[in-house]
Amino acid sequence: MNHKAAIPNAFTLTNLLLGILSIVYTMDQNYRMSAIMILLAAILDGMDGKVARKLDVASPFGKELDSLSDLVSFGVAPAILIYAAQLNEPYGIIGLTVAILFALCGAIRLARFNILNITTHFLGIPITVAGPLMALFSLAGDHLPDLFFPVAMLLLAGLMVSNLKVPKF
Amino acid sequence: MNHKAAIPNAFTLTNLLLGILSIVYTMDQNYRMSAIMILLAAILDGMDGKVARKLDVASPFGKELDSLSDLVSFGVAPAILIYAAQLNEPYGIIGLTVAILFALCGAIRLARFNILNITTHFLGIPITVAGPLMALFSLAGDHLPDLFFPVAMLLLAGLMVSNLKVPKF
Predict the structure, then answer these.
(1) Measured distance CA(B130)–CA(B119) in Å, rounded
(2) Residues of chain A in Cβ contact (below 8 Å) with chain B
(3) Where do the domains of chain B lie, and which CATH numbers do they carry?
(4) Predicted complex: ipTM over 0.85
(5) Helix H segments across chain B?
(6) What pLDDT digit, counting tens, does each position of A93-127 carry?
(7) B12 in Cβ contact with B48 (< 8 Å)
(8) pLDDT digits (tens, 9 = 90+) for B129-167
């Protein structure tokens, strides 16, 4: 790996770092900071691919690392956050099931898209959209009804594994 | 995807499910169950590839899904468990840094191995060995000195990204 190639990968690893910090903040019941970590990860995730292409150092290694980081920051971290902050009370085990389903559908979405190699559009809503959306909803949590969270999470989970064509920007 | 191909993927998704449950148990401070989830995930992870090859349904999709699940169950879940159970007290932010470094090295290990396509041996200790080892250490936590955990975790992190040739069994 040359030095220039390390730059986008450093962005991607920071994305993963922020995803893990989000989980740590959720453990400390600091749900606001947990959501902010996910949103910061989303900003970095939007930059690594652009930087890699601009520097002409896009690589299969970078792509793999990106998928791995995306699952943690936009699948697992939001699932843990929304479960702890919004679903555990009042939904208990059903809330946990919904949260885990969201992360599993995110993993399926990532694995499927990686092997399809479609470049013109996305198939199903990207996990990089669904995860940050759930983090935004969590920040607005007090103003939303209880039922909003399981419904939104199931809907986004379904849309990630759907065959919906989503335009690339 | 045919019906037979769904069998190993169900094993892989259960591996991911157990990784997420491990994080949830750590949040509940049930560190014993958290470690057991990681060890159960390791058993399932040993089975999915074998089942896929036996049924002759090994696929790029299955391989991608396997890597994604491995990072959560054997990188992130052990990092969160060891940080909460062994490193937060007495090491604080330094303990958190060690735990996150372990997960980041695990991600690099997975991304690197996936693009190398070596089939005769492993390069660096697999994350599927390092993660379950940390879970085993955690179960024996009370009998080990405090300093054991950051040292073992840094050592395994380094070995994952090393060029050590590890034979396949």
Answers:
(1) 20
(2) 13, 16-17, 19-21, 23-24, 26-27, 59-61, 64-65, 67-69, 71-72, 76, 79-80, 83-84, 96, 99-100, 103-104, 107-108, 110-112, 114-115
(3) 3-167 (1.20.120.1760)
(4) yes
(5) 3-27, 31-54, 60-71, 77-82, 88-116, 127-139, 148-160
(6) 999 999 999 999 999 999 998 777 767 777 889 99
(7) yes
(8) 999 999 999 999 888 998 999 999 999 999 999 988 877
